[in-house]
Amino acid sequence: MVKKTKAKTKHTRTKRARPARSTARGGAPTARTAPPAAAASGTERDLKARLARGPVICAEGYVFELERRGYLQAGAFVPEVIFEHPEVVEQLHLDFVHAGSDVTQALTYYVHREKLRVIGREKDLAPMNRAALRIAKSVARRTGTLFAGDLCNTNIYDPGDPAAVREVARIFAEQVGWAVEAGVDFFIAETFSWAGEALLALEAIKRYSKVPAVVTLAVHKDPDMRDGLSPVEACVRLEAAGADVVGLNCHRGPSTIMPFLKEIRAAVRCHVAGLPVPYRTTPEQPSFVSLTDPCCGNARAFPVGLDPFVCTRDEIAQFGREAYALGVRYLGVCCGAGPHHIRALAESLGRHPPASKYSVDMSKHAFFGTHERIKQIQRDYRPKL
Ligand SMILES: [Zn+2]
């Protein structure tokens, strides 16, 4: 039986984030000068209080975005960039906050003992976790965003192997320990395709911390969890075991995650999370891993050929509106998300993050503009563009 611990409920509603210091030379924000926190999101460090007031946006998919930027290798997907270029990780956190994320999630995804064993860096386990937590905490505290710890799929879970289950529990316990030491505001346990593994992660969070737990499952092409439960049943069990927010992240795009979110919303009482990948998945190929590209001999597009399937900002905005109308309040975008997706999601929920200053305005466009200085000769040329 998982012990239920009471989450911190002290409201600090009167607290305000310090305004961002302006850059001395008046340039664009740098890693040293944080963007201001999204005003609508509040600044208290209580996830549940924020959810009670409205949506909470969480940018995920750091590993994919760092791969795209050239700082991480697709395949192992271990963020060694934490040591090699901590300033890049910090800037990515800041970019997502600037675009509207209410959460700064420590980049400890795949910084667990098993993954570091695979790449031969097990000795770096504790320092790498602590470094990732330090970077995220620094950004969270400067921006008034929530500071989240992160646990994820271990890739060794096997319900029929007691030694493997013990090792998974050890992996979660040690990562929870480093995150508690860093003072996280809540935990995200994510991307589990085994319900049993998700329950183990939740158990570690409840046992070794006093902060809320968001647990999200990932549904592959196979619509069930690998231990046979439906995602809905798995979420019901997670709620019963003390999760504060349950739901889905990763693998499925907006259109193929939505049917599950509807069922989950109807089946649980707690808050629900929905963080799809920003790819155009289909009923035949419902996960981004299953997508094949007709332009490339129907080869599997995952992981570095997914560009033709990327959702537009409008598609992400539509997902945001639909999911929120359904009652899903913890919203985000996972692997493949760029800051433009997060801004589109934030704006779909009525937010105006700092990046909205640069949201599209075609009124002054050279051909399509309506501004009085746009010459008729330019407008007349539109059909030939
Ligand atoms: Zn993902």
Q: Can I get a quick summary?
A:
The protein is of the alpha/beta class and 385 residues long.
Describe the structure.
The protein is built from 13 helices and ten strands. It is of the alpha/beta class and 385 residues long. Strands 1-10-7-6-5-4-3-2 form an eight-stranded parallel sheet. A two-stranded antiparallel sheet has the order 8-9. Helix 7 packs across helix 8 and helix 9 packs across helix 10. The longest helix is centred in the middle third of the chain and has 21 residues, at 162-182. The chain is globular and about 75 Å long. Zinc ion binds next to loops.
SSE topology:
Blueprint: H1 47-53, E1 56-59, H2 62-68, H3 81-84, H4 86-98, E2 103-105, H5 113-118, H6 125-143, E3 146-152, H7 162-182, E4 186-192, H8 195-208, E5 213-217, H9 231-240, E6 245-249, H10 254-267, E7 271-275, E8 292-293, E9 299-300, H11 313-326, E10 330-333, H12 339-348, H13 376-380
Bound molecules: zinc ion.
Integer-rounded radius of gyration: 21 Å
Q: What's the number of extended β-strand segments?
A: 10
Mean pLDDT: 91
Helix-strand category: alpha/beta
